[in-house]
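2.7 Reproducibility. Because tokenized structures are sensitive to small changes in the input, we list the exact sequence used for ABC transporter substrate-binding protein, including any N-terminal residues retained from the expression construct. No trimming or masking was applied before prediction.
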Amino acid sequence: MQSRMSRRQALTAALCALALPTVATAQSWPSRPVTLVVPFPAGGNTDVLGRSVAAALSDRLGKQFIVDNRGGAGGNIGATAVAKGVPDGYTLLFSTPGPVAQNRLMYKTMPFDPDKDLQPIVLIANSPLMITAKANSPFKTLEQLVAYAKANPNKINIGVPGQGTLGHITSELLQKSADIKLTNVPYRGTTPIVTDLLGGQIELAVDFMSSYVPLVKEGKIIALATTGSKRSESLPDVPTISETGVAKFEASAWYSLLAPTGTPPEVIEKVNAAVNEWLKTEKSAEVLANMSMQANGGTPEDLKAYIASEVAKWGPVIKAANIQF
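Resulting structure tokens (single pass, no recycling of outputs):
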């Protein structure tokens, strides 16, 4: 009996010893620099916000958070590196909707499973889009546009920033929700859309707000509506699409943090708390306002539910538009 007890005590002690390093690692995290993978090239709004979040985490958690830009395949290359990485808290993903929600609906094959391989941490911010019209457009409101488009299907051109982009699928969602038909004109990015909208080669555009807000304020183009769930502080007089009568319409880019599945819960909690604290500061409000973004925050469970709702919303739209890569 005594021998059996001794063996049992020895086994318990051994198991406790094995568990100690893991607990100590989680409690002392971060003890070295953390890599924040941004799955898009440097320079755009995604990169700017990612670097702002990295700086905030560095300040709050006492170790440097280093941005690693790994662009390509709609964000899948960078996201794959994190999804298949070691779940020790030292590699995190700063993601847009593509890698964690929309790409699975458009790409024939995915190198990872976003739901199984990535662990949600926090939803940081949303970036609504805007429907704009050329300066001499007969449409001064979205209601006027919808009425004309119903009577004249496919007669209006709308510029979108590339096939499969958020601007493209937002145009498709608008047409589905308002029961109208527009002609999508895909461009390679924002700059040529702005050029043609100013020149009158296209009637409308749907794109992220930041490049268009100055043009609206200068009277060079007309803002018909924004696509978020609430009005933008950048243009508070411009209604949301829902306010114009297209019920429950919401479309925006969103930015979130995720980790490889299996990352210690203590790490998830620390990062979540640090980001939520930062989102309450004047500094974060300034950063987001400069890019016409809206703060979010919340729990990992909130982000998980939001991702699921985005997949459910965009799945039928992308399938009906036959967008596939």
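The first strand starts at residue 34 and ends at 38.
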